[in-house]
Design a protein that fits this description.
Number of strands: 0
Family: Belongs to the derlin family.
Oligomer: single chain
Order of helices and strands: HHHHHHH
Membrane topology: Multi-pass membrane protein
Structural class: mainly alpha
InterPro entries: DER1
Pfam families: DER1
Number of domains: 2
Radius of gyration: 28 Å
Region (Disordered): 118-142
Shape: flat
Strand content: under 5%
Distance between the termini: 89 Å
Helix content: 40-55%
Length: 142
């Protein structure tokens, strides 16, 4: 009798929530029974590098938007812009007679590029780690 009521309650859960809850319970049971380790759950190089490639990420995100009932227009625009950028940045310049159309504005280079290191730069004492003159080459006992 209790089994039937539990089964009915389980079947009344919405399908997506039921699938997620079932996956959580089965995963927890598999870890507790030591069929899999938590490390295998968090880091699976074969799954990451062979089966799920980064180029599929926009399509997966669009699928989630579709499942959640959101508009996929923004996702499709992002995918289109990404394809155009990839073509103009990586494909077209490598073609015979191709040129690099997209260039970083010089103002952004000036703001974000790291300056060249000055070999004559001597940091102030408060900029040194711990305030000590590390690495000045003084010999011990000499």
């Amino acid at each position: 009798m209790a089994y039937q009521s539990l089964r009915l309650e389980y079947l009344q859960i919405p399908p997506v929530s039921r699938a997620y809850t079932t996956a959580c319970v089965l995963t927890t049971a598999a870890v507790q029974l030591e069929l899999i380790t938590p490390f295998q759950l968090y880091f699976n190089p074969e799954l990451i590098f062979k089966h799920f490639q980064a180029p599929f990420l926009p399509w997966v995100l669009m699928g989630f938007s579709l499942l959640l009932g959101n508009s996929i227009i923004v996702d499709l625009l992002g995918i289109a812009v990404g394809h155009i950028y990839f073509f103009l940045e990586d494909v077209f310049p490598n073609q015979p007679g191709g040129i690099r159309i997209l260039k970083t504005p010089s103002i952004l280079k000036a703001i974000f590029d790291t300056p060249d290191e000055d070999p004559n730069y001597n940091p102030l004492p408060e900029e040194r780690p711990g305030g000590f003159a590390w690495g000045e080459g003084q010999r011990l006992g000499g």
